[in-house]
Specification:
With about 230 residues, the protein is α/β, with parallel strands linked by helices. The protein has a single domain, classed as Aldolase class I (TIM Barrel). Helices cover about 45% and strands about 15% of the residues. It contains ten helices and eight strands. Strands 1-2-3-4-5-6-7-8 form an eight-stranded parallel barrel, surrounded by seven helices. Helix 2 crosses helix 3 and helix 4 packs parallel to helix 5. The protein is globular and about 65 Å long. The structure holds N-acetylmannosamine-6-phosphate. The site of N-acetylmannosamine-6-phosphate has 15 residues, from strand 8 and helix 9. N-acetylmannosamine-6-phosphate (LRY) binds next to strand 8 and helix 9. Belongs to the NanE family. This is Putative N-acetylmannosamine-6-phosphate 2-epimerase. It is an enzyme of class 5 (isomerase).
Length: about 230
């Protein structure tokens, strides 16, 4: 079996991302965040940008799933949208590149299958297709991705809006395909992560619930505000 897939099997992947408008933005900070995740038992790190990828690899020696979030005017797709981001990411030699694998139109009319082909021809990097529903998954596999992740469930206008993770999608995909299915998106408790593995997920990606302190703080402050209002 591929060594990366073996390493993450039934284990935790932590997403360490802080965009420019987030308080913890910066490759040095993300590298330390990833080191903390490693100390806590993470077996791989999902990260954004070439500089964060390089810093995290150096600091942790963990395998990485790299993306570049980039907006384009002519497309809704922002996770590794075009060949430009793919080529940039390959310079960091990530174990995996994740990209939006929905059927939506890519910038400049680029095609998912061409990006997949380019990565497979030029590297041994695996490809994680970020999908939002069952139909996206079928398309991503047709285009040749190696791994599926439920990253985009709730973030396309045709997938369900849920407050928690999309357990149903993980269960459906696990029962339908032999491809490793990664559970990702709004997994905010250890119990939810464990349930994903019980449903057959290959591994679980947790992001904000571990690495976005502003999001964690808000869950506490909101709970206190509600309690205060109930008392008055
Ligand atoms: C939808 C989207 O853009 N997701 C991004 C994908 O890389 C990240 O912002 C998420 O943090 C990551 O998917 C993990 O999810 P959560 O932070 O909910 O555990």
């Amino acid at each position: 079996m591929n060594p990366f897939l073996l390493q993450i099997k039934q284990n935790l992947i932590v997403s360490c991302q802080a965009l420019e408008d987030e308080p913890l933005h910066g490759s040095g900070i993300m590298a330390k965040m990833a080191l903390a995740a490693k100390a806590g038992g993470a077996k791989a790190i999902r990260c954004n940008t070439v500089s964060d990828s390089i810093a995290i690899k150096e600091e942790t020696d963990l395998p990485i799933i790299a993306i570049i979030k980039q907006d384009y005017e002519d497309s809704e797709i922002y996770i590794t949208p075009t060949l430009k981001e793919v080529k940039d990411l390959l310079t960091a030699e990530p174990e995996v590149i994740a990209l939006d694998a929905t059927r939506r139109r890519r910038p400049h009319g680029e095609e998912l299958k061409d990006l997949v082909q380019y990565i497979h021809q030029h590297s041994s990097t695996l490809i994680m297709g970020d999908i939002s529903n069952e139909d996206d998954a079928a398309y991503a596999l047709e285009c040749g991705v190696d791994i599926l992740s439920t990253t985009l469930s709730g973030y396309t206008d045709y997938s369900p809006t849920l407050t928690g993770p999309d357990f149903d999608l993980v269960e459906t995909l696990v029962n339908k395909y032999n491809t490793p299915i990664i559970a990702e998106g709004r997994i905010s408790t250890p119990e939810m992560a464990k349930k994903m593995l019980e449903l057959g997920a290959w591994s679980v990606v947790v992001g904000g619930a571990i690495t976005r302190p502003q999001q964690i703080t808000k869950s506490f402050s909101s709970a206190l505000t509600v309690a205060e209002k109930e008392e008055i």
